[in-house]
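User: Hi! I'm a student and our assignment asks us to look at how structure tokens line up with a sequence. Could you show me two examples?

Assistant: Happy to help. In each example below, the sequence comes first and the structure tokens follow. Example one:
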Amino acid sequence: MQPFKPPTFPVLAIEGERDSLLAPYRHATAGLGAALAVPGDESALKAPALRGAQQGVAEAWDAAFGSLALRWALHGQSTATDAFLAALDPARFVPASLRFAGGDNPGDGRGRAAAPLLALAEWEHFLLRGDRVRLAHAFELLLADHRWRAANLRRRNGLFTGAPGPYRLHATSRFMLGGRIVPSLASGASWVDASGMHALNARVLAEMARLLGHTEAAAELDWDYRDVAARMNVSMWHEDDGWYYDLDEHGSFLPARTLAGLWAILSGVAPRHRAERMIARLADPAQFERAHPLSSLAASEGDYRKRDGTPVAVARAELNVIAWESCFAAGRPGRAQRFCEAHLRRVAKVLADSGELYLAYDPDRDVPAPIPDGTSGAEAPVAMACVIQETLGCLFGVRPHGQRGELELCLHIEERHRVEGLPFLLGTLNFEVSVAAPGGRRMIELMCDMPLKLRVRSGEQSRLHELNPGLHTLQA
């Protein structure tokens, strides 16, 4: 085994006051290496894994979000999903968690299976890195996991229910009384996030299958995706409320408006007109856009806060990543970037006051919020990983499309800003964007060591540039 090298990330800078938005990114990139447990005396796992909230345990949920961030690293471990793919259960499903000491899955029952997020992480890794060999290896394992889920976890109505821990059910405050999840209510319901995740898993795996030439598997996955999507659109969409909801055991709505509904957008299940209605609600201060966006539970809900003022709803790192990505998927990158800037500004303020990053924040105050296990998620590795993904993938608007050799930049930051050492496919690139000149035009100076297509997007307009290795000056 090669010696472990801590990950190193691109260097970012913004000219002027907005550079303070990068304080969380710099803090996270400096600390994420120490948050990885490396195979050896401490860990019996076959690859480095992100430390979880529980001592001595890595969790697949964290690994998926951690891999979204670690793929941006120039050097060192580029994914946190390896340990879970290497530990595929004999029954052919991805384990929800792994003990460092023995490499076993400590869960029981349905809680032993992870939420189906690793295919998304692997696909995004491929779009940035272009590693087809890795994609082919991961696809076979993830296809086995998906087939196991379809055979074992589907309810009679064709939708899905997860397990509270692996799916982070508590993050959206659903099925809870007195601060605790009610197992009987949760297990009898059909979950919008579990169903949306399954649909997303099928769609992403179908894209992998087509790319790798597995036509029969692609057709099977397309059918599964369309089936779940049709059921969600018929049963889970509330036309009057303009949102996707969970269903109780009788098929009736459980109308708690939470960010869990956004999985319908990210998965592609929601038609365009429905996605537009949902994105509009995200920008409503009476709903999700609070002082610290976004609230996991709409402010219009009666249990938005407890009687003692403690927030039930939180602005939570992973849910914000899903929200930003849903906005991009719905064709609203500007809205995602505005939300993200407001979020990072609040995170930077709390970081300056406390010296720490947190997993969850009070949506209305510049303080961390308690999460159901009684902690605040201070310096949680998954919180660091989400900050990296939010900064590069959303605030800076770097959107890789490796299957077509195209890198997209969604310009949002008005000041001069630069990125040094950005990995893409088999090379790296540096770029700097100027302030807007009279007439709104901006100059981009870019150095790359491989040919690529660069798409520059500003508002509704975009322009594609085909570049060879070397230094380029472009007008946007």
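Example two works the same way, sequence first and then tokens:
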Amino acid sequence: MGRGIRRVLLFLVLLVALGVRLRGITNPLLDNQAWRQADTASMASHMLGHLTDIPNVFLPQLNYDGITPQRVELEFPFLPYLLAWTWTLFGWSDIWGRLWSIFLSLITVGGIFELGRKLFTDRAGLLAAVIYALMPLSIYYGRVVMPEPMAQAWSIWALVMIWNRRSSQEERGSWKVGLLMAGAILAKLPQLMLFPVALLFGFFPLNNKRLSQLVRYSMIALIPPMVYYLWVHFNVATSSQFVSGILTGQVADTSKLDWKLLSKTMRRGFTDGILLLSGVGTGRLFFFRSPARLALLTWVGIAVCYIGVVCARIPLDYYLVPILPLAALLGAYALDGIPCLPGTVLAVVLLVFINRGSYISLTPKYQWNPEYLSQAKWIKDHTSTSSILVLSDPPPMTFYYAHRVGFRLIKVGDEENPIEILQRFPGDYFVQLPQSAHQEPFWKNVRARYPEIGPGIFDLKKPKPH
């Protein structure tokens, strides 16, 4: 495949990838994964005016649970920082976060194309890019205001760079590759699974010359994430240690494995056809004559362990995002076994057929409730900027859109007296969120005690007389 043809085909793939990711581009951060998207944007909002206050600006802050923004233990806020600078220069709008994520997703598509053609063939690289561009999980999580797009882009290009460095037998520049891998791990901790894969790509088989390069690369790739995560861990309250809380609570201390839900999530996110092709591609790897074979098989093994240890315990689809590039490469390698030009045409037709229902099946993920916006706008327009809110349920998006801070009610039974519960919080207003989980008796008690001054907004400062 000539360079000109290769570039034209890659451009067409990127155009398709862009087109499917533009769906819902103007949606507020209230569709599927609204909670995590609003959290990401909230972190950016707290950086405004403090962008040069380094390193404190990189301590993530969220609008709950307190009378001031709370520091929390999360990944390094690359995207919030980038978003805060964009808002500073061009003004606040949710669309900027989506545009950055789409841009990063397209960089990932280009990286998968590059890695696929370097490891296998030009055609395999093109097919891998097509598969990644069309997988349902890749489409949706390629336009969310979350860290996944950035982590994907940096990690896949870290692998491309380390393979290029090995192929060219370049001895300098390992620090650049190490920093890119460190950035990927900082952006999203599960990208750590690619660290041993990168070592095998770049330094296997090991010799004296490669040993010093491996040590230098490892230190550059691992020390920044270790320093950052420790720094954040010891600078937040115990209740706000989310990253370590997930590792110790939802992974280490959880024995329940929900294989049925995980299987359903994987089939929807990858499609049955891509999962089948990934299996065929894995089988072909055993006959693959390349220094990359061990690294790719190791990647498969790590992915299987990750699915069994993490995804089976937390069967949420965004935990599967780190596996998308591997599935794309394996599926492409399977299709690359079909020889000649007609085989390429057949492979593309097969991919279109496999993904024909993917775009439609994503529709529920783009739906959102406009009541959140109207309610938050009322709060923003009719209450003081220093007001403290108490939300009726855990979803915190109202804090972001109302530009307020406060508390949330979590695990409150309807048999409990809401008056006694609300008196525990130093709040000014109680907000009945759309689709609240509380039943009518709960709200009957609230209305009997507090005046409703807005749409689902109760004034806690002026309780009704008994």
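Here is something you could point out in your write-up. The longest strand covers residues 388-391.
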